[in-house]
Amino acid sequence: MKAVRIHRYGGPDELTYEDAPVPEPGAGQLLVRVRAAAINCVDWKIREGYLQCCLPHQLPLIPGWDFSGIVEAVGPGTHSMRGEEVYGCPDLSRDGCYAEFTVVREAATARKPQSIDHVHAAAIPHAAYTAWHSLFDSAGLVRGQEVFIHDAAGGIGHMAVQLAKAKGARVIAATSARNLTFVRELGADQVVDYRAQRFEEVVHDVDVVLDTLGGEVQRRSWMVLKPGGVLVSVATPHTQEMTGRHVAPGSLTFNQPNTAQLTELAHLTDGGRLRPLVETILPLADARRAHLLSQGGHTRGKIVLLIP
Known about the structure:
By secondary structure, this protein is of the alpha/beta class. The chain contains 9 helices and 14 strands. It has 2 domains: about 1-125 and about 275-305, Medium-chain alcohol dehydrogenases, catalytic domain (Quinone Oxidoreductase, Chain A, domain 1), CATH 3.90.180; about 130-245, 3-Layer(aba) Sandwich (Rossmann fold), CATH 3.40.50.720.
């Protein structure tokens, strides 16, 4: 099969489009013919070697951990059928899906949303689940509360805006000027142009902050929380000093969805309550360009590799 692999850690030039062996499914696993694979920040962080301490890999490695495709073969103890359209996430500890075929645990897949194509289905799993887990499992966001979402037009952010609105929360969103209309259309009640004004001067006393950027943005974000509010970060963990000062527990999310969660996301999508945006579609052989775009940090929605 054709695949994109890394043979050593480093920059985008380490991504090599080449022949690789087709994997075989084991017990509880599916062999999936990949039709689309989405780009996530974790892809290039693993490629650069940043996560070796917590996610050691054997090289060469196929990156990419969001896919949509068709079941090609099944291992023992599975219930899926050959020809089913599924979407999901290979385990982060093993080869991913920048390839014509991937092996994935059946428990990390679900039937893809019927209302969208493979490209848009591949854009959902990690981004939508990370948003869900951050807002509801970690931060405990409930109907009637107020949430402030950074990078609201980005991969995780645009999912978080929609999921928070579906839950009945009031959403304040930070984005750039070119995305103000887009984020309002997603359902945000208030939109802040972070380049035109300092968000901490216009946002106050929110129940939850979703931090997708870390660094200075995270430090300034503590100022917009109400006493007892929650900051949850998918970028960098916050310090105990800051947590104690603001009485605001949070977490660095690093989880993967299961069948039940993916099925719920598919229902939300087919019900019109979750709309994945794909700004850029590239062929598998252009994975280097996709990583460069992702690392640039200004993508609206998702970047997806199309695998015919």
